[in-house]
Write a structure and sequence with these properties.
The structure holds two protein chains of two kinds. Chain A is of the alpha/beta class. Chain A contains twelve helices and nine strands. Chain A has a single domain, classed as Alpha-Beta Complex (2-enoyl-CoA Hydratase, Chain A, domain 1), CATH 3.90.226. The model of chain A has no long low-confidence stretch (mean pLDDT 91). The termini of chain B are far apart. The chains are: A alpha/beta, B alpha/beta.
Chain lengths: 295, 320
Amino acid sequence: MPMPEWLRLRRGKQKQPIEETALWIKCPSCGELLYRKDLEAASSVCMRCGHHFRMNAFDRIDLIVDGDFVEIGSDVLPYDPLQWIDKRPYPLKLATDREKSHLSEAVITGFAALDGFPIALGVMDFHFRGGTMGTVVGERITRLFEEAAARKLPCIVFCASGGARMEEGMLALMQMAKITQAVQRFMDDGNLYVSVLTDPTTGGVSASFGFQADVIVAEARASIGFAGRRVIEQTIRQKLPPNFQTAEFLLEKGHIDMVVARANMRDTLVRILEYTLDRRSAAHAIGAVPELSAQ
Amino acid sequence: MNVIVEREKNLAELERAVADLRAKGVGRDEVRALERKYVELRQDIFSKLTPWQRVNMARHPKRPISSDYLATFDAFDELHGDRHFRDDPALIGGFALLRGRRVMVLAQQKGRDTKENIYRNFGMVSPEGYRKAKRLMETASRFGMPIVTFIDTVGADPGIGSEERCQSEAIAACLTALSAARVPIVATIVGEGGSGGALALGLADYLIMPQHSVYSVASPEGCAAILWGDAGRAEEAAERLKLTSDDLSSFGIIDEIVPEPLGGAHRDPVAFIDRVMGSIDAALTRLALRTPQELFAARYDKYRRIGQQRSQIDSAKDTL
């Protein structure tokens, strides 16, 4: 379905993206009170200190793509393979998150154009089960890479995840293996993969497709790591340095290619596409996604 | 304290009591009755272990560890280091001969005692260990050597240094190397397999699991800490995680369960290890019949299917 309609439909059902309906929002970093409308206009980046609020997948897609978005994998929906109950039964937790986030799962996948380049795009959303990866995230992202490979399109994935989803047990962990294989085939075929690590990217997502890309971009100040901060503190019984596991920390240690502010994200991605792919091929490649070229 | 070790102590006391009675020449019937009770009790304890008891069995101080398996190879030459930072003793790798077959072995190594455990970091591998593994996987693939892995870890090392050197990238690189390998891969869960740190050696064509080993998305302690902020509720977490060999077999995640003697593998380690090695050898023999392309395709399909949705299966049926 073309994006304007797709987004209108999805957004129409969606409530306020940032914490209920408050008119003013306090920046958790500098404490500044920000007017909601202004904050939204600034792509949820604090106008005073540059703190990047977590972004929902709809806003993210809106920020990145030219206009159209063709969703795939929306028919893949969660189930409860372990009959899991902790504080609440797993299906109830899913229902709550569905209502809150207006997402059916923690990732949206599909095709779009980015400054004329047709791309396969995956966007994870922390507001659904902490962006955790279960069988649906695994299946949708695997399909995304398979479909992108079949169409020879570059693939961009925005990661935001607490890791593998406990409630789906080992089936969740195995998604790391499943996605890795699809990514490996995709890249081996000579296709471009760019991952964008946003706040937070940890555990099984960072330890698989998060760090398997040709180019690894991190959004400014994002928290990125394998083990959670609390786990590390409990294990070593030591306070951690304040910038530990931030995008800037990883850049300094040499593990990511660049740290990019949200305001520059789209332009940066376009330049990466221009460097790696031939701009002249873009117009031709758009034919790979008939729904996009129809516009 | 390990709950299995505790049970074993109780049983040992009972065994001693029976022996004492016999020595004192107490009536035969009485001794027989006690002996029967002992056997029944033992059967009762070990024939239906709870998930938490299995976790303790998997961590039993006498349970065979990777080096016990390595000792049964015809030959082994260890290869060290990641060529960048250091050699990680928590991960042992190298060339080996397994019943006459040349293979590349990669093993997570716990220690037998506190001193060795500290040296081996309790089998928790650091990025340099995974990078050594990745290097050896690629070598194995180039020279047509099957990859044989032994998994035994509560999880990847969660220290400051491991984060500074990017544990995520190191594990991801292992997964990529195993995905790309054009040789058979056979993995065995020696004791416990926890999280991505275990999976880094576990993406395999054939996955073997001793009956009382456990394999889970997070360690029970880690899971409890995440769910309830209380690692002390590990037993509850273990109940929910579906981490036993039976559970994983029903999900199609493991390919073979190797039965253990009553009371666990450590009751008869030599015979048990021989049995596992036999299973590994048999799997390698079967996989050797496949071309690299067939291996690659079958491995892809194996993981492609895991956790596929009912809705998806249904919609596939509709289109047929």
